[in-house]
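Here is one chain, start to finish.
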Amino acid sequence: MPRSGTSLESSVLNARRALEKGTHFDAIVVGAGASGGLAAALLCEAGLTTLVLDAGYPQPFWRRPYQRALSLSLASISTPRVTAMLPPGVVWRGERLLRSLGRRRQSMQTHCYAWPSAPEQFVDDVDNPYETPEDRPFMWLRTHGLGGRVAVPLHGRQYLRHNVHDFRATDGKTPHWPFEPHALDPFYDLVERRLGLSGRAEHSRWLPNSIITHNREPDHAEQLIMARIADRYEGVSPVLGRYAPPLDAVDDAARTGKLLLRRGAIAAAVEPGAANGTNLVRFFDRETGAFRTARSKLVMLGAGSLESTRILLNSASDRFPGGIGARSGMLGANVMDHVGAKAQGTGPDLGAPAGNDVAGKCIYLPRFDTREGGETADARGYGARLYCSPAIGGQSYFTAIADAEMFPRQTNRLTLSKKKDAWGIPILHIDVSYSDEERAIARKSADALEELADVLGVKLNGPVSWQGTPGNSIHEVGSARMGDDPALSVLDPFSQCWDAPGLYVIDGAAFPSEGNQNPTLTIMALTARACDHVLQEHAR
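Its structure:
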């Protein structure tokens, strides 16, 4: 998570002064998460004076005493070192109790597995509501603040590349991405070097290699787990997860002296090309309690896949009646989230080391659906992540998560509601559901995790649950997809809005399809590619 150093404090003060003067910025970035933070760093390092509008708004204890007290209580039982000293039943019961208390203002956010580690980073559902059809719920799990969701302590932090098949599927179920599959390689390289990934080159047939900064070998527990899986399944080649601490991208931007940071800025809409190609960004300023505008020819939306699309939908005007990008019929459509399963339990002590990096270390099983052979590379399947950490009494905690691909469909759609949030901005109506095919693969992945637990001698603490509510995987993408035809897409191949030159969408909203890997690395690579395109245009 970004540090509160002198340079960051100066960027906050400078932003306040610049907004009061009505400054025309070189660039405006909305959001300071994985995509927005990286964009700010790359643009500032290239010499562009960049305003970052971040919705996070730290409040003193006296303003939110209930939430702060709850957060401190959760912190006492959610760290790996503490859980290693408590009986598993005590940990699970204590967490369930505190989650029930948290539902007072975070009825949705408390469903996130990582919520106990940092409740204050998640949004207040009372202030930030959304709606769904009664028979089609959606779990929208959100954070506000520097670093975004990857800055939450228990976030998995897995950085995996898409493969050629993800970009160029041959079964007709998903559209091709609007560039050659290896066009993203140099930007994957750039991001991986900045992250400083830990892991090793595995040469998996399903997973492209990454640039590894910290090469490591499996620890004792990982060796035992990987050996048992390889012995049991001829078609499985376990690999080490590729992880890194949160990137201090906002700090990197601040150190250039080119960053201006406005916190508590709730972006509402964009008015493109208002004068001389200048875009206006309208936002609610929580410090002043009023709406304000900021101006720049370059605007990058990195507020989160669904939030960035809400901004585009809310940017309706005589020029863009349904919002920016709506003429394609694809704005708000094709929402996707991984569908899969989760299993938790305790098993034999394998000597897993306790430490601050436990949350990032895991074993990844690419295309675990091929474990018995017989599947082709073109088939759609699922991968699985396996986490192991020490527990009291000569045991280990095990958590396994399977992720399968959801397919883009225009019926899975975002629209604006007539209702508004705490700042008077229309909220989203989210109408998303899984298909029968997606439900079937989720159930298969649940069976696979139960089988995996048996192989490893793990006693599950309940039935394996397949994630029947979209959004639960926290990997939502789509809704403003890129393409090579403005009649069929919202964004061009460089993530720029066809309808509004200078307006880019740099988060997961741009995805034409999902793949079954964690999307964070590909989101960041697309951000780096968009920034490269911007800087080349700027140079010309």
